[in-house]
Amino acid sequence: MGIGKLIEEVAGAVAAEDAVGAVDPNAGILTKAAAAVAGFEGVNKLTDVLKEKEEQPAADNSGDQNG
């Protein structure tokens, strides 16, 4: 795991926790923790999808689109 990936995951966790705080200022510690885990895992899934898109050969997108 690189430092860049760790920074992305932490940023996702912090953003999700901040979003919960904005929606419910009285949210409990368990709610905030669940949001942090969801944000952490969400960043992992998003980066996996983006990597898959990058790895697809460019030939898949170069077909005739007039037909």
Number of strands: 0
Q: What's the helix count?
A: 2
The succession of helices and strands, N to C, reads HH
What's the number of domains?
Answer: 1
Uncertain spans: none
In summary, what is this structure?
The chain has 67 residues and is mainly alpha-helical.
Helices, strands, pairings?
Layout: H1 3-23, H2 29-55
Helix pairs in contact: 1-2
Describe this structure in words.
- The chain is built from two helices and no strands.
- It has 67 residues and is mainly α.
- It has one domain.
- The longest helix is centred in the middle third of the chain and has 27 residues.
- The relative contact order is 0.13.
Search tags:
about 70 residues, 2 helices, about 70% helix
